[in-house]
Design a protein that fits this description.
alpha+beta, Aminopeptidase, 2 domains, nine-stranded mixed beta sheet, eight-stranded antiparallel beta barrel, elongated
Length: 483
Amino acid sequence: MKTYRIFSAAFFMFLLCGIADAQSSQQERLTGHVYYFASDSLKGRGAGTVNADKAARYIVRQFEEMGLEPFFEDGFFQPFEMYGTDTYKNVVAVIPGNDPSLKDEYIVIGAHYDHLGIKDDEIYNGADDNASGSAALIEAARILKSRQDQLKRSIIVAAFDAEESGLWGSKALAEKLDLDKVKLMMSIDMVGWLREGKTLQLEGAATIKDGRKLLEAEARKMQLDITAKDFETKILTATDTQGFAKESVPTLAVTTGLKSPYHKPEDDAELIDYHGLDRITSYMADVTECFANQPSPLPSGKIAAIHGGRKKALEIGPVVSWANSYISFPDAAFNGKTRDGFDAGIAAQANISKKTALEVRALYERLNAQYPDGEDLYGSALKYHQESVVVPATLLFSAGEAGVNFTLGVGGYFGHVLNSGIKDLSAPVTDKNQWGICWSIGFQIGKIKFSGERRYQLNPLFIGEGAPDARLYTGAFGVSFLF
């Protein structure tokens, strides 16, 4: 252990002992929480470990101290199984609302308390990820409890286990709750680097009725810079909103971004911006109170595409492919050898429904193939080259989980040849206009799509007297990015 860590830990463990003092400020309490969760003694809070259990029991003590009630009848812990074991637990409390018609509706505010534990003999303390969010959750709950008399809807305060293992804790809670009564779920995940991140990022504003307006209004009151995005778009860094959003619950993912040493041993408590964390905590308490007291229903009816919502009506983006082609001679029952080429251009995808779409691409294509040198089909070969503009149009059918889809497409294409020829030969002459059928198979994750395609020319490749009956067949493997 480094010397500065020893002194820092000793100082803030001393501070932690005084947290219950009514004179301690919110920022001091937040600092104490983060230093406890991110201390070497908790060894990275690996999900389901005795050290994660210590963190969970610490959260329970904080909830008990401020007078929160357990949400479930058998206490604050919500045990759940993962990989056949039952050592995992969420900590779930409730602050009951007071409005006769709204108190049975819930706003869920949550943060995961687990991290990566120990890897290669190094402790991953996870100060930003997510000791910062856990600390903010505790102190936001303290504020909301002090304002309980003003709350119309009830508030569920949830500290999740096993987020790093696959969002298991939040999924377990989503499965346990009556989601018809949950009007909004907010996840606080990595909020300790406001100074470097510059703004607080709020993803999912469009899933909430008047969400952007309300979020920005509360931010102006605090003079806090925020970036309110309509939807979550990240697949590889999903957060605890997922289990709720996939069931059409409005969600808001709250973060200062990936500026900290994300998933690295260097993510330590002394790097956290505690002044920024203090401001974010107060903002989240105010926002939660605002949503709890909205008289109108909160869901907007809009869900992010990665959570199973309808995609944008039209998506456009660049596409580039590696291609290979060969010339087929049907009358001779002979196919030439393939040669490499490429194409690049723009893809446009019109989403007809969740499962069907029409894709049209405009491509510049450079193809190469082999042409027999003389009458001996199996002898030496000459190089055929072709530059053209090609427009494939494909009807796509998709299947898979939200945000991750497999696609199968069938359609046709039209191409206009810009330049072509056979080395050392003036004939035959290439038909400038080419058309045929095509099919494709693809895999899409978020906005990135990988696809393989085959195109079969139906009209003759060559024209003119004495031209051989030939067709150009092309295969391509490409990647596109759709906005």
